[in-house]
Design brief:
- It is built from 14 helices and no strands.
- The chain is an all-alpha fold.
- The protein has one domain.
- Helix 1 crosses helix 12.
- The protein is globular, with a radius of gyration of 20 Å.
């Protein structure tokens, strides 16, 4: 579906933009509503990725559970491990980092999720966690008709919204829904991608606009980073509503002209590699080698240049590594993609 390809590309751009801006704010002293908006709004990339995972993972197929997990290992986990090993060695060789026995350090980091060379890996661990329940959820969601799926989605949204309102008021709900927030968001992604949600498209887009307005209002009031992170990003309902609105809007695109569809699919195919390597590109190439920082010139132009170069370099790295190694390996295992 072109809408899902477009969402992958948009999410990849959001990841690079928000990490670039946050890095510059920490190192170059950038501050104020404009720069806060430049990292908070793109942060919907995390919710978009989780919803995309739900839209794709929970589609029922006849593949066995073992085949499901083998596919995800070769498509996601193996590249993640390989690139992290590369990041650690780059840190050792280029920055003189001392980790003791490197193999032990890497193993411990990957097992515990404490990966300072790739701080964005936390989201990948969330996605891997979703994989563990996906085969079961596939069966559950497969047996829901459109009306039942709508009810599940509304129940999840109602709970998340009431809990968010209680948190804003300084309270904690006594009633808990024993389902992780990210798991709930992945189910909402499946719901939006499913046909039954299309009658709610206008409502979802309007909710997204409300979420964006709330976030902007909070930013203009001068909220600090801690408040923005807690109440305007990731699982926070305003950010979730904005992500759902964007998802629903792009979900209206059912087809693209042939050449454009092929180009979008091509970019989307290598977007995961961009996510994997962009932090290393930002740290070791953009900032350390090219010396491109906000302090090197007009801040906005430098940030946009950094983002553009990062996307281009990361895409080339993804194209080479996935095109020559990971995708051929998958084909060798009998899977096309």
């Amino acid at each position: 579906m072109p809408s899902l390809d477009l969402l992958r590309i948009l999410a990849a751009i959001g990841v690079v933009l928000t990490h670039t801006v946050q890095t510059e704010m920490a190192s170059s002293g950038l501050s104020g509503p404009f720069w806060n908006a430049m990292w908070v709004f793109p942060m919907i990339c995390n919710s978009l990725y989780v919803m995309l995972s739900g839209a794709l993972l929970y589609r029922y197929t006849n593949e066995s559970t073992s085949t499901f997990f083998r596919k995800r290992f070769f498509s996601m986990v193996l590249p993640m491990v390989v690139f992290y090993i590369g990041f650690v060695w780059a840190d050792v060789l280029l920055n003189g980092a001392s980790h003791g026995r490197v193999s032990t350090y890497i193993t411990s980091a990957l097992v515990t999720g404490n990966t300072p060379e790739s701080p964005h890996y936390w989201l990948l661990y969330i996605l891997i966690s979703l994989y563990l329940t996906a085969p079961v959820l596939r069966l559950f969601l497969k047996n829901l008709d459109g009306r039942a799926l709508d009810s599940v989605a509304f129940l999840l949204l109602l709970y998340l919204t009431v809990r968010f309102g209680a948190a804003l008021a300084g309270n904690t709900l006594a009633i808990r829904m024993e389902i992780g927030d990210w798991l709930a968001i992945s189910i909402l992604g499946y719901w939006i991608a499913a046909g039954s949600s299309r009658k709610w498209t206008i409502v979802l887009i309007a909710a997204g606009a409300c979420g964006a307005a709330y976030i902007m209002w909070v930013i203009l009031r001068g909220a600090d980073k801690a408040f923005l992170s807690e109440y305007c990003c990731n699982q926070a309902v305003p950010s979730l509503f904005l992500a759902m609105g964007v998802f629903a809007l792009l979900n209206l695109i059912r087809s693209l002209p042939g050449p454009l569809a092929s180009f979008v699919s091509f970019l989307s195919r290598y977007s995961y590699g961009v996510i994997l390597v962009h932090w290393g590109v930002l740290s070791f190439i953009i900032r350390k080698t090219f010396k491109i920082t906000a302090a090197a010139g007009e801040p906005l132009m430098m940030v946009l240049l950094s983002v553009a170069l990062n996307l281009a370099i990361s895409f080339v790295i993804s194209l080479v590594t996935f095109g020559l190694v990971f995708f051929p390996l998958r084909r060798l295992m009998g899977w096309k993609r």
